């Protein structure tokens, strides 16, 4: 069948499609801020609520979190309805649920997502609940958004460098270098090991190239000054130039994201990589080396000049509460889950995720775990939030930067041009 | 069928000695035959390598999945990932949900689109072409845009977390293509057949059900299979519109095996292979209809 479509027909066709799209868009609900219920409103004290958590899906985490829910259910006579989505889809699904007032209760949140969800205007300020919870200041900071404590910290760590002590030792590196210059020299030594070992499995794929932001900070770029994006300044250009140098010298490898880095590291084919503390379990499970756990050593990111503070991106999970029905009950639940000594001990014992309270961190279990202790002291201690997280468009911003850095790596743009473009594009996204 | 009455009945060795019928390929020159086989192997390998890789990953022990350099043939083989499926009753629930949702979507899509396509194909009325384009235009929307709207609509009618929400949303996307596919098929059925039935006194419904439908089985099966596969493979609508009880396989598998820091690749591959089997069997059984149904109407004299 051959049908000829006239221009008029095509315009009708597009008009119909446009009309349909406009009609459908008009049907979509507009978000509105939720007014808090009075503290003594019986609705706010309902005993039944939902708890959204991606950990409830995961093989290792599900029994632990379900066990904690069972404990609180028995203890306080609550009914907690678990809600779960895969991690990669979690924010979108949760946004839909919260936006449509379908989620009544509490939710686990990656600290990077707090700004995006807070923009809906439905989260409760948990400042009062946080006051005497005994949380560390770094942990509390991870749940803050525009001066409000919108999340209670459940676990707090950072994304930092993890090394394989054995490979470092084989390359003659007995002490991890403090400065970038020494770090580069150490990478050259590691390359000398041969056998296809990648000295540093740094992220070079767009999906995870945002890791470079903390190298930029190391070189002195603030990323954001108020609402002014500083990417494009000399420090950021210098950082990307250095990254490109590592790439050209094959000290870092092409096409690597976090999952690739874990795989390479687990196979003993990478000496150093970037990861959060949560990645340890995955690396060990998939490694053929049964002694790998003993060889892991988290280290502070090298600095530009000796004495500078090492840079690391804060990482963690918080519990947020949706304002409205059962909000008081969900707040008490969130506080119990994140600060009760028995609950946090259990969480650490089964999942090795560090607690967020002073007491929890001082417990024997944490203090006697060398990996967690070293991670906290060397990396988390000086970690800071990614400044772009406060914008709901943070993911777009990170992608824009990552694409420009990748353009530099593959040689299609100069560091100066790429960072100027990245800075301009991110600035356009700042509202 | 070319059997004649005077063909002698051959028995035993005589029957075996009779040369087999030569395929068109056999009659070609050797160079052409080689080229044909190379093409088949290359394209077959291209299509089947991912399936083989799934199988190889499913059979590889955890510690060796990421071995470098990757091995095409696993040195160690384990069936533990397949065995672990037996202990996961939730996968069976996902499978049942997928079968229900995809099956109903297929039936509903075929019924609705058959009537629409018949109308578009055999009737001439004002607005017919505009309606056809309007139906097709729904394919032009980004699905994510429709998802938000459908979510609000289903929420308003209290249909979230039901099979109905999934079936209706899947049918929304399958209808346009099914309608156009079947219209092409119905265009190939001569109008004289309909005229003859009408002269014999058949009603319009009788003509559709007793004349058109029996002649259109390949097209209907092809459209049904397309709708079934659309429902079977959908991830984002099934994840968003269905609660834990009604979740289908794609979001179910993601929920089960994809984590924040880790993906259980061997288990995921084993589960994907096992749950693909019903669809593979259905395709093998119905593939002769599929090819005929899709290409019907593609060439018209």
TrEMBL record, chain A:
<dbReference type="GO" id="GO:1901982">
    <property type="term" value="F:maltose binding"/>
</dbReference>
<dbReference type="InterPro" id="IPR006059">
    <property type="entry name" value="SBP"/>
</dbReference>
<comment type="similarity">
    <text>Belongs to the bacterial solute-binding protein 1 family.</text>
</comment>
<dbReference type="GO" id="GO:0015768">
    <property type="term" value="P:maltose transport"/>
</dbReference>
<keyword id="KW-0813">Transport</keyword>
<dbReference type="InterPro" id="IPR006311">
    <property type="entry name" value="TAT_signal"/>
</dbReference>
<keyword id="KW-0762">Sugar transport</keyword>
<protein>
    <submittedName>
        <fullName>Multiple sugar transport system substrate-binding protein</fullName>
    </submittedName>
</protein>
<dbReference type="GO" id="GO:0055052">
    <property type="term" value="C:ATP-binding cassette (ABC) transporter complex, substrate-binding subunit-containing"/>
</dbReference>
<dbReference type="Pfam" id="PF13416">
    <property type="entry name" value="SBP_bac_8"/>
</dbReference>
<dbReference type="GO" id="GO:0042956">
    <property type="term" value="P:maltodextrin transmembrane transport"/>
</dbReference>
<feature type="signal peptide">
    <location>
        <begin position="1"/>
        <end position="21"/>
    </location>
</feature>
<keyword id="KW-0732">Signal</keyword>
From TrEMBL, chain B:
<dbReference type="GO" id="GO:0055085">
    <property type="term" value="P:transmembrane transport"/>
</dbReference>
<feature type="transmembrane region" description="Helical">
    <location>
        <begin position="31"/>
        <end position="55"/>
    </location>
</feature>
<dbReference type="InterPro" id="IPR035906">
    <property type="entry name" value="MetI-like_sf"/>
</dbReference>
<keyword id="KW-0812">Transmembrane</keyword>
<feature type="transmembrane region" description="Helical">
    <location>
        <begin position="207"/>
        <end position="229"/>
    </location>
</feature>
<protein>
    <submittedName>
        <fullName>Multiple sugar transport system permease protein</fullName>
    </submittedName>
</protein>
<keyword id="KW-0813">Transport</keyword>
<keyword id="KW-0472">Membrane</keyword>
<feature type="compositionally biased region" description="Basic and acidic residues">
    <location>
        <begin position="12"/>
        <end position="24"/>
    </location>
</feature>
<keyword id="KW-1133">Transmembrane helix</keyword>
<feature type="domain" description="ABC transmembrane type-1">
    <location>
        <begin position="95"/>
        <end position="286"/>
    </location>
</feature>
<dbReference type="InterPro" id="IPR050901">
    <property type="entry name" value="BP-dep_ABC_trans_perm"/>
</dbReference>
<dbReference type="Pfam" id="PF00528">
    <property type="entry name" value="BPD_transp_1"/>
</dbReference>
<feature type="transmembrane region" description="Helical">
    <location>
        <begin position="130"/>
        <end position="154"/>
    </location>
</feature>
<keyword id="KW-0762">Sugar transport</keyword>
<feature type="region of interest" description="Disordered">
    <location>
        <begin position="1"/>
        <end position="24"/>
    </location>
</feature>
<feature type="transmembrane region" description="Helical">
    <location>
        <begin position="94"/>
        <end position="118"/>
    </location>
</feature>
<comment type="similarity">
    <text>Belongs to the binding-protein-dependent transport system permease family.</text>
</comment>
<dbReference type="InterPro" id="IPR000515">
    <property type="entry name" value="MetI-like"/>
</dbReference>
<keyword id="KW-1003">Cell membrane</keyword>
<feature type="transmembrane region" description="Helical">
    <location>
        <begin position="166"/>
        <end position="186"/>
    </location>
</feature>
<feature type="transmembrane region" description="Helical">
    <location>
        <begin position="268"/>
        <end position="286"/>
    </location>
</feature>
């Amino acid at each position: 069948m051959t049908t000829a479509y006239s221009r008029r027909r095509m315009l009708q066709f597009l008009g119909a499609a446009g009309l349909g799209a406009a009609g459908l868009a008009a049907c979509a609900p507009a978000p509105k801020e939720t007014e808090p219920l009075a503290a003594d409103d019986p609705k706010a004290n309902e005993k039944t609520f939902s708890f959204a958590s991606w950990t409830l899906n995961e093989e290792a985490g599900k029994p632990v979190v379900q066990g904690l829910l069972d404990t609180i259910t028995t203890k306080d006579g609550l009914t907690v309805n678990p809600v779960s989505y895969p991690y990669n889809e979690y924010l979108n699904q949760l946004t839909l649920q919260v936006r449509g007032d379908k989620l009544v209760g509490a939710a686990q949140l990656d600290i990077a997502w707090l700004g995006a969800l807070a923009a809906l205007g439905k989260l409760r300020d948990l400042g009062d609940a946080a006051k005497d919870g005994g949380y560390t200041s770094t942990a509390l900071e991870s749940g803050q958004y525009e001066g409000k404590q919108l999340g209670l910290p459940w676990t707090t760590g950072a994304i930092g460098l993890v090394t394989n002590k054995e490979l470092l030792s084989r390359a003659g590196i007995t002490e991890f270098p403090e400065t970038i210059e020494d770090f580069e020299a150490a990478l050259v030594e590691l390359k000398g090991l041969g056998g296809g070992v990648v000295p540093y499995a740094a992220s070079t794929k767009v999906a995870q190239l945002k890791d470079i932001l903390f190298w930029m900070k190391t070189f002195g770029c603030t990323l954001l000054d108020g609402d002014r994006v500083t990417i494009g300044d000399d420090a950021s250009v210098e950082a990307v130039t250095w990254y490109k140098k590592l790439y050209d010298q094959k000290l870092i490898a092409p096409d690597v994201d976090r999952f690739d880095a874990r795989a390479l590291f687990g196979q003993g084919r990478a000496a150093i990589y970037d990861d959060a503390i949560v990645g340890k379990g995955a690396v060990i499970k998939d490694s053929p080396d049964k002694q790998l756990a003993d060889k892991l050593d988290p280290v502070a990111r090298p600095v530009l000049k000796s004495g500078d503070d090492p840079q690391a991106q804060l990482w963690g999970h918080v519990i947020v509460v949706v304002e409205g029905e059962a909000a008081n009950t969900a707040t008490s639940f969130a506080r119990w889950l994140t600060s009760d000594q028995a609950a946090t001990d259990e969480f650490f014992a089964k999942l090795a995720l560090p607690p967020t309270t002073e007491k929890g961190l001082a417990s024997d279990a944490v203090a006697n775990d060398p990996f967690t202790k070293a991670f906290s002291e060397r990396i988390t201690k000086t970690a800071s939030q990614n400044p772009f997280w406060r914008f709901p468009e943070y993911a777009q911003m990170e992608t824009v930067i990552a694409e420009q850095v990748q353009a530099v790596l593959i040689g299609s743009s100069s560091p100066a041009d790429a960072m100027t473009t990245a800075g301009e594009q991110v600035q356009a996204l700042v509202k | 069928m070319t059997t004649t009455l005077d063909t002698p009945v051959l028995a035993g060795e005589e029957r075996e000695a009779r040369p087999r019928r030569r395929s068109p390929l056999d009659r070609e020159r050797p160079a052409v035959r080689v080229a044909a086989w190379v093409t088949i192997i290359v394209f077959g390998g291209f299509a089947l390598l991912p399936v083989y890789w799934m199988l190889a990953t499913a059979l590889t022990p955890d510690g060796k999945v990421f071995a470098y350099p990757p091995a095409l043939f696993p040195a160690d083989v384990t069936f533990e990932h397949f065995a672990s499926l037996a202990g996961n009753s939730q996968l069976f629930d996902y499978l049942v949900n997928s079968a229900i949702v995809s099956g109903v979507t297929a039936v509903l899509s075929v019924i609705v689109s058959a009537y629409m396509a018949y109308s578009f194909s055999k009737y001439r009325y004002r607005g017919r072409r505009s309606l056809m384009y309007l139906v097709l235009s729904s394919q032009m929307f980004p699905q994510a845009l429709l998802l938000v709207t459908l979510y609000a609509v289903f929420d308003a009618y209290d249909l979230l977390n039901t099979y109905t929400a999934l079936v209706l949303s899947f049918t929304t996307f399958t209808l346009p293509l099914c309608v156009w596919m079947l219209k092409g098929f119905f265009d190939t059925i001569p109008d004289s057949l309909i005229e003859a039935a009408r002269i014999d006194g058949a009603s319009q419904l009788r003509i559709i059900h007793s004349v058109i439908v029996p002649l259109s089985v390949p097209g209907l099966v092809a459209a049904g299979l397309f709708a079934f596969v659309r429902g079977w493979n959908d991830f984002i609508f099934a994840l968003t519109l269905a609660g834990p009880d009604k979740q289908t396989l794609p979001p179910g598998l993601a929920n089960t095996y994809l984590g924040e820091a880790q993906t259980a690749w061997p288990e995921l591959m084993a589960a994907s292979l096992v749950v693909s089997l019903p669809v593979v069997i259905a395709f093998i059984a119905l593939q002769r209809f599929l090819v005929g149904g899709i290409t019907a109407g593609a060439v018209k004299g």
